Amino acid sequence: MAREYPLERVRDIGIIAHIDAGKTTVSERILFYTGVSHKIGEVHEGEAIMDWMEQEQERGITITSAATTCFWKPTYSQDKKDEHRINIIDTPGHVDFTVEVERSLRVLDGGVVVFDGVAGVEPQSETVWRQADKYNIPRICFINKLDRTGASWEFSYKSIHERLSPNAIAVQLPLGLEANHEGSVDLLAQKAYKFEGERGEKVVETEIPANMAEDVKKHRANLIEKIVENDDAMMEAYLEGKEPPLDELKRALRAATIAYKVIPVYCGTALKNKGVQLLLDGVIDYLPSPLDVPPVEGTKPDSEDVITREAKDDVSFSALAFKLQNDPFVGQLTYFRVYSGVLTSGSYIYNSTKDTKERVGRILRMHSNSREEVKEVFTGEIGAIVGLKGTTTGDTLCDPENPIVLERIVFPEPVVDLKIEPKTKADQERMGLALKRLSDEDPTFKIHTDKDTLETIISGMGELHLEVLVDRMKREFKVEANIGQPQVAYKETIRSEAQGEGKYIKQSGGKGQYGHCKIKVEPNESGAGFEFVNEIKGGAIPQEFITPVEKGIKEALDRGVIAGYPMVDVRARLYDGTFHDVDSSESAFKIAGSMALRDAAQKANPVILEPIMRVEVIVPTDFMGEITGDLNSKRGRIESMEDRLNLKVIDAKVPLSEMFGYVTRLRSMTEGRGSYTMEFDAFEEMPKNISQELIAKKQ
Ligand code: GDP
Description:
By secondary structure, the chain is an alpha+beta fold.
């Protein structure tokens, strides 16, 4: 089968927004206008189509990223040859779901950033913007909700300019605001459009109101200057007083947007059905196709050499699994984006991250409310494989004959722990399965058993993150459980080198036990995790006992030597040991490995690490002193203070342990007028006096 849409007519995009800016409503309208959805469901009625998980509808926030395919012919050309395929990768707006945002950003080529036309840029808009910057994602903006009372296009546009990027530039002006908002003026084409029909499905050209002429002229000149700035030839002509023709201006704007030098700004109201079709035109006109982004990079398995794969159907297959989702009808779905080559159902693929082979059964393409079974998925496309067993989020899937490991998605270590206890025996069994599934889906959600109390502990990126997962466990897997109080997930590490020895010898009766090893430990780079180096020479320890030593060391790392927190970022070198012809066994060497690690770690200046959060507090100026004083008393470091209209914005880094219950505290300190957001920044060494208190409490 041949591909239906040439690659240049494919768009892989995400809709990125602060919660409540209207991402869900915009997505729905897109699906409606693209003809996939034939019924418009309002979010407040709980009929959202993208939010197909029950719970997301109740919370009104989008948590998981599903990928949905739709088709669009631009309003200015209904020719079939101009029809594009748009794959929308849903991204969540809450910072507790950073991973969801990051993994979706990783696989999309362009973004539509939605803003609330009353509030303009909000704290979390900045967070997601910065995340998109990390991946250099070309984007267009949509100032939504211009129908709301208090809507201000000027204010919102200015806030994008000042707080996000000076390269944001209006390509439209609104026709009226609040109840009078009717449509928009296309600045380049100098045409005005209204949206008529019950659902605004008719895009109708109208006169530019006379009183807007000045504004249109001014903003149009700004836009054209911005475009020609990025194109030397055009600049020259422009300086000579020649305005380039419309199609050339559009071409240059496309190039500048893709290069992330310019960010076109659209406007409208999704809820009242105005502007979404023109925004879709913008997706096609200005956001990149898979051909416009650099070829994907990766390495050969077992090597550091970087290799690239071009976005072409006739080269070896490579793809990234970016999302696992449990579907009530077909079971486990693995969403993937193809970077090169073609995936065919029934073929074998290689998971180069896990070093396993898998057979591809059914492949689906998801539309908003239906699914289509496909035989092949081509380069640049997104699909979902049914029933893949050993693949988790972030894994590379590729041609077994020509393997590649694509750049990994780096997931942060979880920072909050929660004790969880099943209510009945039946719940216990289901809970195990549920937790496994959920942690396969989400690499920042981890599970472990406390070795002392045998309690199950789940760990995640924030209180809300865990709350949502526990909720899903109850709903999707029908597990009832008691939940403890959230606790900080501390870690331990070492600060210097040391040697350690482990000797496990037992000779009383029957077959004895003999394992003996010597290791050196040293700090590994922050975030690099555990690394094991085998430096045994001359068979001091036989080959078959090396892995058991490594396993023993790994196990010992689960319980740090200071207070039993997991130890991270340690490199261990096994350099010597002895063995016994008869008594040596794998288990004896495993125990010896554990003993050696504990011995060495104790001498290697062990410390406790605590998660530090990046906190942004926004308060009226009057409360500034009290808030900064309070943050200082919480061991916070104030990084910056800025004015934002009549408010103060305080950026600080504060240990997570000091931030539990901050919502209530901030509320009472500011008479309910302050707000804050928080996200994980880094693990840092805990001051000695504080860690001593912590250790004392644990004992
Ligand atoms: P999300 O959290 O970003 O997905 O935002 P939603 O799409 O769920 O929208 C949040 C709320 O704003 C809902 O109550 C929507 O009905 C409402 N909303 C979305 N778009 C508009 C709009 O253009 N105008 C108005 N007045 N309300 C809107």
